[in-house]
């Protein structure tokens, strides 16, 4: 049996670290040729096209250089994103602008540059990285949640616009995942071990999500065998969004 992404080309934004790196690894393991679009060098085996998703010229050039290198583009994974902490009063105008530019407009820029190439593919998909914060009210995440709610709405609108062109658009919504990002957050806490326990307890399965689990969900949605999955938001959150458990005795 041939690998399911054999012959296909993928770009993964934010593929230098955490969830994006796991996605790039899995797509490559399953046969795709992968370009990582990131501000940072991925320091792995993937082809790196330096890219700041907040900058249109940078995105256009990275997508074009991917197509120049590999000759086509089939799979886009819009994963790059940054965090923001605080309630609605805590973030400056500059932080609001920066988070929006990376987390939301960044996905639109990459999609805009990729669409002409995706239209030529018979296995085209875009998968955006949403979050449990897209749908659940989390404390001290007002700005971040606003951007991730926008990712969910954007995903559905994009899916409607492009389904008849044969381009499937979906998103994945992880719970708290064990990545360098969350590691940085824990280090800032007064008691990192207690903070980690609190984050684990918040998820019904009692642990953090792994980057590899999120990658498998992205691969499912990108897999051309799953063409009937369109405009969906696939949670990978240990039940955090859907379940209401009684407290443990
Ligand atoms: P991470 O910080 O480990 O990796 C993020 C990557 O994005 C880095 O390689 C970084 O260099 C890159 N990046 C940042 N700004 C960029 C820009 N302007 N242009 C290009 N690349 C840029 O983070 P992660 O935890 O792997 O998160 C990845 C995605 O998953 C984000 O969209 C995040 O919102 C989402 N997410 C994470 C969690 C979690 O708990 N870790 C939960 C839900 C959703």
UniProtKB/TrEMBL annotation:
Do you know which CDD domains this protein is assigned to?
SDR_c
Could you tell me the keywords of this UniProt record? Oxidoreductase
Residues in a coiled coil are none
Q: What is its EC number?
A: 1.-.-.-
UniProt enzyme class? oxidoreductase
Keyword Lyase on entry: no
- Gene Ontology MF terms: oxidoreductase activity
In terms of domain of life, where is this protein from?
Bacteria
Known InterPro entries for this protein? NAD(P)-bd_dom_sf, Sc_DH/Rdtase_CS, SDR_DHRS6-like, SDR_fam
PANTHER family listed in its UniProt record: DIHYDROANTICAPSIN 7-DEHYDROGENASE
What is the similarity comment for this entry? Belongs to the short-chain dehydrogenases/reductases (SDR) family.
Name assigned to this protein: SDR family NAD(P)-dependent oxidoreductase
Q: What is the lineage of its organism?
A: Bacteria, Pseudomonadati, Pseudomonadota, Gammaproteobacteria, Oceanospirillales
């Amino acid at each position: 049996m041939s690998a399911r992404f054999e012959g296909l080309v993928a770009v993964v934004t934010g593929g230098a670290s955490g969830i994006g790196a796991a996605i790039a690894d899995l797509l490559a393991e399953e046969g795709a040729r992968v370009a990582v679009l990131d501000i940072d060098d991925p320091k792995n085996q993937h082809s790196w096209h330096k890219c700041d998703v907040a900058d249109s010229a940078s995105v256009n050039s990275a997508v074009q250089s991917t197509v120049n290198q590999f000759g086509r583009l089939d799979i886009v994974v819009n994963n790059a994103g940054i965090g923001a902490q605080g309630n609605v009063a805590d973030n400056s105008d500059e932080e609001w602008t920066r988070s929006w530019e990376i987390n939301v407009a960044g996905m639109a820029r990459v999609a805009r540059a990729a669409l002409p190439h995706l239209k030529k593919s018979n296995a085209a998909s875009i998968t955006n990285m949403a979050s449990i914060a897209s749908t659940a009210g989390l404390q001290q995440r007002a700005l971040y949640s606003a951007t991730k709610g926008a990712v969910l709405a954007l995903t559905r609108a994009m899916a409607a616009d492009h389904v008849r062109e044969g381009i499937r658009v979906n998103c994945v919504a992880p719970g708290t995942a064990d990545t360098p990002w969350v590691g940085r957050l824990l280090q800032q806490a007064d008691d990192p071990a207690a903070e980690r326990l609190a984050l684990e307890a918040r998820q019904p399965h009692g642990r953090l999500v792994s980057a590899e689990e999120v990658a498998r969900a992205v691969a499912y949605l990108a897999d051309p065998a799953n063409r009937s999955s369109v405009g969906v938001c696939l949670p990978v959150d240990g039940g955090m969004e859907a379940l209401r458990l009684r407290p443990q005795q």
